[in-house]
Amino acid sequence: MQRWVIGVDLGGTQIRALRTDLSGKKAARAEQLTLAQQGPQAVLSRILETVREVTAGISQEEILGLGIGAPGPIDSAGVVHDPPNLPGWKGVSLVDELAGPLGLPIYAGNDANLGALAEHRFGAGIGVDHLVYLTVGTGIGGGVISHGRMLTGWRGFAAELGHQTLDPDGPLCGCGQPGHLEAFASGPAIAREARKALEQGRSSTIPEHADGAVTAKSVAAAAMAGDALAIELLRQAGYYLGLGLANLIHTLEPQRILIGGGVSLAGELLLEPARQTVDQRLMSPVYRGVEILAAALGPDVGLMGAAALVMQEGGSPR
Amino acid sequence: MQRWVIGVDLGGTQIRALRTDLSGKKAARAEQLTLAQQGPQAVLSRILETVREVTAGISQEEILGLGIGAPGPIDSAGVVHDPPNLPGWKGVSLVDELAGPLGLPIYAGNDANLGALAEHRFGAGIGVDHLVYLTVGTGIGGGVISHGRMLTGWRGFAAELGHQTLDPDGPLCGCGQPGHLEAFASGPAIAREARKALEQGRSSTIPEHADGAVTAKSVAAAAMAGDALAIELLRQAGYYLGLGLANLIHTLEPQRILIGGGVSLAGELLLEPARQTVDQRLMSPVYRGVEILAAALGPDVGLMGAAALVMQEGGSPR
Fold first, then answer.
1. Does the beta-carbon distance from A284 to B75 stay under 8 Å?
2. What is the mean pLDDT of residues A242-260?
3. What is this structure's pTM?
4. Which residue of A153, A177, A281 is in closest CB contact with B283?
5. What span, in angstroms and rounded, lies between the C-alpha atoms of A211 and A238?
């Protein structure tokens, strides 16, 4: 009998679902808008619709289970605890809400944690049993594989790797705390520094690459075209990223660190300054050799991770 | 047949060994000076002597194995990589050097990592499968239990929890890097801030509690006697400790954090400000509820951890 796995990514903007075989090969994919402002019940209905789309014509016995990733905080039991971009989701259990209507085993996790699982099983972290994954975008999230397993922490809230204080007097983070890595190296942080420099009269082609407001994307585009200010802004973000990575190397000592998310599309303009900072900030030469690389899986990483979670927890052979 | 386990702690000052039964009950204990300046071969001879003392009259078949803790960096294979307080130990394998002469299975680890293992098996972390242990003394070391297992990282160098950058412009750490937690909250850091305040003419009874030079111990003694400056210095150290603990909660989400080491003898004068800072710096209320407590095992924690390592790795029933 053919066996399938369903992976769902519940994002603030889009719901996406896919069906894969046990090797991770995609057989069907569907997506629709989340329309999060309509609240949990409407969104849950749309999740069910999207899942039905990718399971059309498939008998239930062929489906090993459904994995779903959601923005944190989400606990190990699959309960969503009021994430900023899912209004009304206070204590909603994804596992309970989906298991009844679908009649499938449901597994849920934080989307960034699942990103680590996806890269470990299908991406740039295959065979690497001590792995750190960072997604650098609107926020900075993370996931950790330790001794070959996803590190969840006590209640499932571990690996918020963007929320480490790098400077107690630093700029405010999206979470409201001062000086976190996210407040220095996320997309909005890079855009903030760009606007500040432009307001101070720095000459730059960044505005020419901006489609309206200046964003991290326009900074990256300008940097790739050789703009000196844009390159400097990415170097500054990469410096703070490197400080955070050195901390993570001392704490977790991964073999490899993978950087994904929209800001990582800036590539070596971000990664090379991060690597240089790590080299300078290691507490001892024994920590050398940790690889810092771009993640492999792109925007579907969360979906693939949700599928990988079913394979891990559903006991499928590796 | 009675079964025994040997635990050894190789410190910069002392070599200590004990023999316990499988419940951790001590049956024999011995110690002597390390005299580290005489180099690895002389120290290894003294380790063997100390072990022979605690195994006198015991047949080899009764001994499940020997665990040994050493100052980091020490890798998963038991090779010591040039720690500052063990001159000449560049690439010396404790496992190889001890296995031959003793004819026993040898297990080695970082002394602070083993502290976490000891507290988990015998101390204030029994039954807590997500545990962080920090030893705050001359330096700040750490150990992590995640999903019930010691987190070692790729090559065994994980859990250097004192070496996280809290302020890139902060004071130099013992490791040479700026602004690490250790540079703000270790014993020498507290003593440095005390001397600075006294030189600036702050009135305090700290010098009356000092036996010669002002140390963290004299600060703690003065604080316990109600000295305002001393209390403020411990609160400041506790503030930075709290920043570091909030980072660790976001990264590892332990159920409990245990603080040991000499500086932790200041007790609530250090822990209460650390807890207050953690409360203020959590990125979300979902992280509330992590316990921050004093460690239980005292100065023999490393020895107990070395014995616990044999029990873990030697496959003894829990």
1. no
2. 98
3. 0.97
4. A177
5. 24
